[in-house]
Structures are given as structure tokens and as C-alpha cells.
Design brief:
Distance between the termini: 21 Å
Shape: globular
Oligomer: single chain
Radius of gyration: 21 Å
Structural class: alpha/beta
Order of helices and strands: EEEEEEHHEHEHEHHEHEHEHHEHHHEEE
């Protein structure tokens, strides 16, 4: 049995911050006490913050390691380990790695790399070389013809814990503005006007044929398997009502205040992107996360495409004039996501829980990760 004692720390508990000490025994938190202790071998945290390890529900960061440049693929195991190291260094101790099923872009590497990414994650977990706990999040593009079949081929994987339903076809949700849709995809792919018109017609036809049927079938499969379900880019009250009908637990990145407030009011965990907080607004022109903090309806933070943003966002919303307390802000990246996906063994600092912890020092109003423990093992 191994034991570590951390003392002289500011412990971020579920509802408060106290000065205290903590004992890690094997992979669990064995004791939490107020005040410092003088014990040989104890780690003096020098007044730093000790908070629970963060839980990331939605990040496509791993894809960048599998394709570091256009048309350049990287070996799966090495790519997964590089991604894993970045998660640990960012203070993320549980990550639901998002892999996309279906993509409106038929040339996307997501089609060919899907099973490679899933297998690479499984490999580093099986071999015990991953630093943090990896789970799987399947992002299902419901307007793609092959989405349902591909989802069903992965639905029994033991590491699968979250499924989101997306529809990136033109004229709705994130792309309610057709001009914004044109600007985004012409800029991304260099389409001329005629090619862009054909692309729009094809996406609209696919959405009309597949979206509703795929959404319903995948939602029913998740209910049968007890998998947490997330909506994506809900923009209207009608979108929220549809999500509720399917038993959705998480509202990922609602694009309007009315959708966010309705989701929160009906018990869905409202997730917003940490980059939205750090940058001071949405890069797509949608509702700013800070506005939802002021309304008290932001429940979960996600690093989305920038892992280091998660810790930064926690401390920014704790520093906002109309923001959250530090304990509540930390919960947005730990306890709230844990509860949203049914993980009851982690997410806050308490006796008996998994010893996922981050030691954080604030320097010039910036949170710096000093050490990270995942399952009681120091991984950074």
C-alpha cells in the first residue's frame, strides 16, 4: 500500500475552499482534513490550490495528432500518446475523446481514421501506458448516409460513454445563416461558386433523407445501452424540446440564450467551450459563454479544440464580477461533467473517491499547473 500526504494547500471542495491537508492511499483519497500537518515525507503545497482533476467531455484534440498536416497521417499509438501527454499537462485526468462518425466533407480523414483512432486509444489503455483515463465520445453526424451503420459497429465498445447528435447541414443550428455556411466551407475547401452550390444541394438532400431517422435510431440505441446522450448546437426552443424527447442529458454548445436557458431549466447540463470564455466570445458569433455565467445557466466547461483553455476558463469565470465562486467554477470542469455522464467515483475532493488531483499556482493572475495525479499516480 502506497501513501502520499499533501499539506499546506488550499483545497477546493464541492462547496467551499479550505486550508488543509489530504492523504492519498493507493489510487484513492483516504482523508481530507482542515489545517496543515507536520509529517515526515509530506509534500508541502506552499499554499497552492489543490483541486479535483478536470473531466473533459468533448475534445477533438486527438485528431490533430493523427493528422498533424493536411494529407499527413501519423502512427496511431504515437499520436494517441502525444495527445494523452497534453491532456495530463493540462490537468485533464478523465477525457472523453471525441471521434466523428460521418462528415459533410467526403475528403475528411475522419472517415478513414475512425477505427484507427479508436484502436489506438484502446491500445494505450490496455497496456497501462496512458497517463489519464480515456473514454470514448462518438460524435454522430446524423445527415451522413453511413452514420447509423458506423455507430452500430462501435456501440458495444466498453470504453464508450457519451454520444452526441450533430447536424451540420446548411440553414440550421450553427449554420442558420446560409452566407456564414458559404463563407466557412468555401474558405476551408476553396470551392468555386458552382461547386459550393452543388455541395449545399447535396447536404440539404442528405439531411432531408437521413437526419431525422438517424437521430431517432441512435437515441433509441443509447437509451437501450444506458449511454449518456448529448445534443449539439441547439438554437431554438423546438430543438430543445426534441432533445428532451430523446432523453438528452447534455446540451453541447447551445448557440442562443433561449436554447441554453431552456436546456438548463429542463435539467440538461449546459456545456460551453472554454475557448469562448478565454477569447471573450464565440468565434462563430453565437452566444458568449460569459453571458450564460452571468445568468447562472452554464453548467459544464469543455476545452473543445484547445486543452489548456479549460483551466484558464475555470479561473476566469471565478474572477468575473458576476461570475461563479471558485468552488462552483471548478465544479464546471469536474463535478458537473462527472454527474452528467454518471461517473460517481470522481469529480470532487472527498474521502473514498478516485485520487485525481491538480496542484495549481496562480502567478500574475494566471493558473499554472504544478503537479497532476491520476488515480493516485503523479503523471505531470
Amino acid at each position: 500500500m502506497s501513501e502520499q500526504i499533501l499539506t499546506n494547500a488550499r483545497l477546493v471542495l464541492e462547496d467551499e475552499v479550505i486550508s488543509g491537508s489530504l492523504v492519498i492511499r493507493d489510487d484513492r483519497i483516504a482523508a481530507v482534513d482542515a489545517g496543515a500537518v507536520t509529517v515526515a515525507g509530506a509534500i508541502d503545497c506552499e499554499g497552492d490550490i489543490l483541486m479535483p482533476g478536470m473531466i473533459e467531455l468533448h475534445t477533438d484534440n486527438m485528431e490533430k495528432y493523427f493528422q498533424p498536416r493536411p494529407k499527413v497521417s501519423w502512427p496511431g499509438r504515437q499520436a494517441a500518446l502525444a495527445h494523452d501527454a497534453q491532456m495530463a499537462a493540462s490537468g485533464i485526468t478523465t477525457v472523453f475523446d471525441a471521434v466523428s462518425i460521418g462528415d459533410v466533407d467526403d475528403q475528411s480523414m475522419r472517415h478513414t481514421a475512425l477505427h484507427d483512432m479508436v484502436e489506438a486509444l484502446s491500445s494505450i489503455t490496455r497496456s497501462g501506458i496512458s497517463r489519464v483515463d480515456h473514454r470514448l465520445h462518438l460524435r454522430c453526424e446524423v445527415c451522413h448516409p453511413e452514420t447509423l451503420n458506423r455507430f452500430l459497429s462501435l456501440a458495444e465498445l466498453p470504453q464508450l460513454g457519451l454520444v452526441s447528435l450533430m447536424d451540420h447541414s446548411p440553414g440550421q443550428r450553427q449554420f442558420a445563416s446560409l452566407e456564414a455556411y458559404r463563407t466557412y466551407y468555401q474558405g476551408k475547401h476553396g470551392f468555386d461558386d458552382a461547386t459550393m452550390n452543388d455541395f449545399i444541394e447535396r447536404q440539404l438532400a442528405n439531411s432531408a433523407e437521413y437526419s431525422s431517422a438517424h437521430r431517432q435510431s441512435i437515441a433509441e440505441a443509447c437509451t437501450q445501452r444506458g449511454l449518456a446522450l448529448a445534443s449539439h448546437d441547439d438554437a431554438t426552443i423546438e430543438h430543445v424540446a426534441e432533445s428532451l424527447e430523446y432523453g438528452t442529458r447534455i446540451a453541447e454548445f447551445p448557440t442562443t440564450r433561449e436554447a441554453a436557458e431552456a436546456s438548463h431549466r429542463h435539467g440538461m447540463a449546459v456545456m460551453m467551450g472554454a475557448p469562448n470564455v478565454v477569447r471573450g466570445g464565440s468565434h462563430s458569433g453565437n452566444i458568449a459563454a460569459a453571458e450564460l455565467v452571468k445568468s447562472g445557466v452554464l453548467d459544464v466547461l469543455s476545452s473543445d479544440y484547445y486543452p489548456a483553455a479549460l483551466l484558464d476558463a475555470v479561473f476566469r469565470i471565478a474572477d468575473m464580477p458576476d461570475g461563479y465562486s471558485l468552488a462552483k467554477a471548478v465544479a464546471c470542469a469536474s463535478l458537473a461533467p462527472a454527474r452528467a455522464v454518471g461517473l460517481d467515483d470522481r469529480g470532487h475532493i472527498a474521502q473514498g473517491l478516485r485520487a485525481d488531483l491538480i496542484r495549481v499556482r496562480q502567478l500574475d493572475d494566471h493558473p499554472l499547473v504544478q503537479r497532476v495525479w491520476s488515480g493516485g499516480k503523479q503523471v505531470h
